[in-house]
Design goal:
single chain; 278 residues; alpha/beta; Rossmann fold; 7-stranded parallel sheet; 9 strands; SDR_fam; SDR_oxidoreductase; oxidoreductase; NAD(P)-bd_dom_sf; oxidoreductase activity
């Protein structure tokens, strides 16, 4: 397989770090961005100029655009952009602070939108490219206490679902990666809003107590991060681009159950739907 050049956000830890490592090991070039790119120094020592790094907070839209421009200027053609940066938040809707709400939307939805908009002129100029968005099975299911996380992921998928057809004529493919729970530090980095006593005994409160007891809820998750990373990399070589990539048996089973339930609810309202026609 010919080597490729990738641009990755959130490359310093978790799946972003593992994807970066695996790409470099197979001989690809990587433009790795992170808020603290210095943690990638060991990879720079090992792989030299095949690793390009930049400091980036993806919620800073101007900086995001500047880094994208610099990466394409320095590296020339970039075949794959992997939008990976993100994190989760926990709290009942009423418990969420305004800052936590804004962060979830900015990080998980608005930043990927601006990233895609920034790379599209380059993809069009080179007559092709692949945009891979790290999503989640949580874009199809929902959990009490994670409303803003789900909202941000459902939102970015709705955006990308629409854009797929817009950019297909330019040879640009888009894939939404929808893993289940992966064994990473994701669970240890959750943003947890202050609790309200009114919700303490409800579903959101029970989830909060569980997280407080367990700590990193993803520490013993069923998803193998190295296998997930390998599947993401392999998806970039698939033609046409897979629209969605479910990873993990937990993701497959949870999403299938949710979709079947949604279809059943839709079918139950078929007569009502038809009754409102002229």
């Amino acid at each position: 397989m010919p080597s490729k050049t990738w641009f990755i956000t959130g490359a310093s830890a978790g799946i972003g770090r593992i994807v970066t490592e695996q790409l470099l090991e197979r001989g690809d070039r990587v433009a790795a961005t992170a808020r603290r790119p210095e943690v990638l120094s060991d990879l720079a020592d090992r792989h030299g100029d095949r690793l390009w790094t930049a400091s980036l907070d993806v919620t800073d839209t101007k900086a995001l655009g500047d880094v994208v421009e610099r990466a394409f200027a320095d590296l020339g053609e970039i075949e794959v952009v992997y939008s990976n940066a993100g994190r989760g938040s926990v709290g009942a809707a009423e418990e969420m602070t305004a800052e936590a709400i804004e962060e979830q939307i900015a990080l998980n939805m608005t930043a990927p939108i601006h990233l895609l908009r920034a790379v599209l002129p380059h993809f069009r100029a080179q007559r092709g490219g692949r945009f891979i968005q790290m999503s989640t099975m949580g874009a199809h299911i929902s959990t009490p206490g994670a409303s803003m996380y789900h909202a941000s992921k459902w939102g970015v998928e709705g955006f990308l679902e629409s854009v797929i057809a817009e950019v297909a004529p330019f040879g640009v493919g888009i894939t939404m990666v929808e893993p289940g729970i992966i064994r990473t530090t994701f669970g240890a980095n959750l943003s947890i809003s202050p609790g309200m006593p009114e919700y303490a005994d409800g579903p959101a409160g029970q989830i909060r107590k569980y997280l407080e007891t367990v700590g990193n809820v993803t520490a013993e998750a069923p998803g193998d991060p190295r296998k997930v990373a390998a599947a993401i990399i392999a998806s970039a070589d698939s033609t046409p681009a897979p629209r969605r990539l479910a990873l993990g048996s937990d993701a497959y089973n949870a999403m299938r159950t949710a979709l079947a339930s949604r279809i059943a609810e839709l079918d139950a309202g078929k007569e009502t739907a038809a009754s409102t026609d002229f």
